[in-house]
Design brief:
Helices cover about 50% and strands about 15% of the residues. By secondary structure, the chain is α/β, with parallel strands linked by helices. It has a 5-stranded mixed beta sheet with strand order 3-2-1-4-5, sandwiched between helices.
Length: about 160
């Protein structure tokens, strides 16, 4: 089974995880390019595995501090990802940021800085954790998608072991 991890923000990314890290792409700015990436991943799932894909997408919303236009743009992007995944018949698991972040903090036994004023420090620590999951260079734009996909893989493995 291929796990797709999506950080749905315009500055986010999509990660493909198939037993191990496979690839990560920047979030495209339109549904056509999003669909091309998802179709490529779906095709790879047939070549390398059983054709099954499941997406783990961060469930987020605009913050009160976001400007109206920025919040609207973010919502557009989020909706595009939903539409693209649904059109390819890929089930979506929505995961709150605090859930996958807490999972990796506990897994690596690290204390992540809290509060809005420590946002950048927290993101840098998550980037560091993502670097343990892949050999490619992790960046602020791809680290969340990598950790979301790796989280999805762990959850799917736990489900498989329960059966």
């Amino acid at each position: 089974m291929v796990i797709i991890g999506i950080d749905p923000g315009a500055g986010g990314a999509i990660c493909q995880w198939d037993r191990a890290f496979v690839s990560v792409d920047k979030c495209p700015d339109n549904a056509k390019n999003m669909s091309s990436i998802v179709l490529h991943i779906k095709n790879n799932s047939w070549v390398n595995d059983d054709g099954k894909c499941v997406a783990y997408m961060e469930k987020v919303w605009g913050r009160p501090s976001n400007a109206t236009r920025a919040a609207f743009h973010f919502g557009e992007n989020y909706g595009r990802w939903q539409g693209v995944l649904e059109s390819h018949k890929i089930p979506i698991n929505y995961i709150l940021p605090n859930k996958w972040i807490k999972y990796w903090a506990e897994e690596y036994n690290v204390e992540l800085p809290k509060g809005e004023e420590n946002y950048r420090a927290r993101k840098n620590k998550l980037k560091e954790l993502a670097s343990f999951k892949t050999e490619i260079k992790t960046t602020l734009w791809n680290s969340d998608a990598i950790l979301i996909a790796a989280y999805g893989f762990q959850i799917e493995e736990e489900k498989k072991n329960e059966r």
